[in-house]
């Protein structure tokens, strides 16, 4: 049963009842209760929708309580904070522009773009997903239209900006190779010859980005969410950028940095900074240097608060040997052990199990490689 069956009449009534009484983990009990009053098919659809709304609150906040979802649409939708950042950038450059969203899904980007004052049109191949996007604009009282159609067959001439989020899944599995996107990469590069923004996976190779296009890696609360490619009037001469949400800190330049021995502090750059290849910007910000030019750790003798990195105070250098690390854990009565690693082949969960921390104290262990040697540092995480 599609979302449209829940928009009005008995469907809307049973959906309201399902949402009012929904409790995670008690879906079967709720289905049994509602089936005493409503059509069984409607009840199943309504309880499923109530569960999706509950999950959707992570990405959409309070809006999720009024929105409609499909399981795949929710999984693939952009978190609102990230979509708002993108929409604000377009609106700041081209106020009131007309934007076509190719493959709009359930309409998450349409919502943020409409709220930013942009004139939005969504194009979606799947009929149920298109109906869901249409319902979401209506439920939130936002202007815009959603057309069912194929992205590659859409006439783009009426629009100022093209936004696209190519599918990165095949047979239910995530696709990491940009050459396996749908629509294909050749279509994406053609879009980038005009004024466009294309959402891509964070692992996009730097050399795959066309010339005269900015690649912006975006993290939210420390988790890398996406890369966005900006072209045409949305390109301002910068080729690489890292943006850290929710604060909005951004970095675009990677100055030269020296390498040297560990200082009093180690800084772990945000994942977006690492993906963008801008680690040396952290070294510049904290007056520091790299532990190794191939590894994304910065060190310094200064404690300098920066939104670009997490900071750790170095307590001591340790031999990277299991026996020595177990002794360190016991001697310092460590029970909560955070393990960070770069450049070494280890599974933190496996190492933590081997070290068996059972004490009362907390510590951070940073394991990395300097030259050919693996090294370990006992550290104290500093408040950001």
Description:
The protein is of the alpha/beta class and about 375 residues long. Helix content is about 30%, strand content about 25%. The two termini are about 50 Å apart.
Strand order of the largest sheet: 3-2-1-4-7-9-8-10-11
Average residue pLDDT = 95
- Based on CA inertia axes, which overall geometry fits? globular
CATH top level of the largest domain is Alpha Beta
Strand content: 25-35%
Alpha-beta content class:
alpha/beta
Are there runs of 5+ residues with pLDDT below 50, and where? none
Q: Could you tell me the number of beta strands?
A: 18
Number of helical segments?
12
Q: How many domains is the backbone divided into?
A: 3
Question: Which architecture of the largest domain per CATH?
Answer: 3-Layer(aba) Sandwich
Approximately how much helix is present in the residues?
A: 25-40%
Topology pattern, helix = H, strand = E: HHHHHEHEHEEEEHEEEEEEHHEEEHEHEE
Present the secondary structure layout:
Blueprint: H1 9-21, H2 27-34, H3 40-60, H4 71-76, H5 80-93, E1 98-102, H6 108-115, E2 119-124, H7 127-139, E3 145-148, E4 161-164, E5 169-170, E6 173-174, H8 185-191, E7 196-200, E8 214-220, E9 223-230, E10 240-245, E11 249-251, E12 265-269, H9 271-275, H10 279-286, E13 289-290, E14 298-300, E15 309-318, H11 322-331, E16 334-342, H12 348-355, E17 361-370, E18 373-381
Parallel strand pairs: 1-2, 1-4, 2-3, 4-7, 8-10, 16-17
Antiparallel strand pairs: 5-6, 7-9, 8-9, 10-11, 12-14, 12-15, 13-14, 15-18, 17-18
Helix pairs in contact: 1-3, 2-3, 5-6
């Amino acid at each position: 049963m599609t979302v449209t069956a829940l928009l009005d009449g008995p469907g809307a009534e049973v959906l309201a009842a399902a949402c009012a009484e929904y409790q995670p983990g008690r879906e079967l009990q709720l289905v049994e209760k509602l089936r005493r009053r409503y059509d069984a098919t409607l009840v199943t659809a309504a309880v499923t929708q109530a569960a999706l709304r509950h999950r959707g609150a992570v990405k959409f906040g309070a809006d999720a309580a009024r929105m409609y979802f499909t399981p795949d649409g929710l999984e693939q939708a952009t978190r609102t904070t990230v979509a708002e950042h993108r929409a604000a950038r377009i609106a700041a450059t081209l106020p009131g522009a007309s934007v076509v969203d190719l493959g709009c899904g359930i309409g998450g980007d349409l919502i943020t773009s409409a709220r930013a004052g942009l004139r939005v049109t969504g194009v979606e191949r799947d009929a149920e997903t298109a109906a869901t996007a249409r319902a979401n604009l209506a439920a939130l009282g936002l202007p815009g239209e959603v057309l069912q159609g194929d992205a590659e067959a859409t006439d783009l001439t009426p629009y100022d900006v093209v936004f696209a989020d190519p599918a990165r899944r095949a047979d239910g599995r995530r696709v990491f190779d940009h050459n396996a996107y749908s629509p294909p990469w050749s279509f994406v590069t053609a879009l980038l010859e005009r004024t466009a923004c294309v959402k891509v996976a964070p692992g996009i190779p730097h050399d795959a980005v066309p010339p005269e296009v900015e690649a912006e890696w975006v993290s939210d609360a420390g988790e890398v969410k996406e890369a966005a490619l900006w072209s045409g009037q949305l390109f301002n001469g910068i080729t690489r950028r890292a943006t850290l949400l929710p604060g909005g800190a951004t970095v675009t330049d990677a100055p030269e940095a020296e390498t040297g021995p560990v200082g009093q502090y180690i800084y772990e750059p945000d994942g977006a900074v690492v993906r963008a290849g801008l680690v040396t910007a952290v070294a510049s910000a904290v007056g520091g240097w790299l532990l190794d030019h191939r590894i994304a750790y910065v060190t310094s003798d200064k404690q300098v608060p920066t939104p670009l990195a997490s900071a750790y105070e170095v307590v001591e250098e340790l031999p990277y040997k299991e026996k020595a690390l177990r002794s360190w854990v016991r001697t310092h009565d460590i029970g909560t052990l955070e393990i960070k690693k770069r450049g070494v082949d280890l599974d933190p969960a496996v190492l933590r199990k081997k070290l068996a921390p059972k004490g009362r104290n907390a510590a951070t262990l940073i394991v990395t490689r300097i030259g050919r040697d693996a090294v370990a540092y006992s550290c104290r995480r500093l408040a950001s």
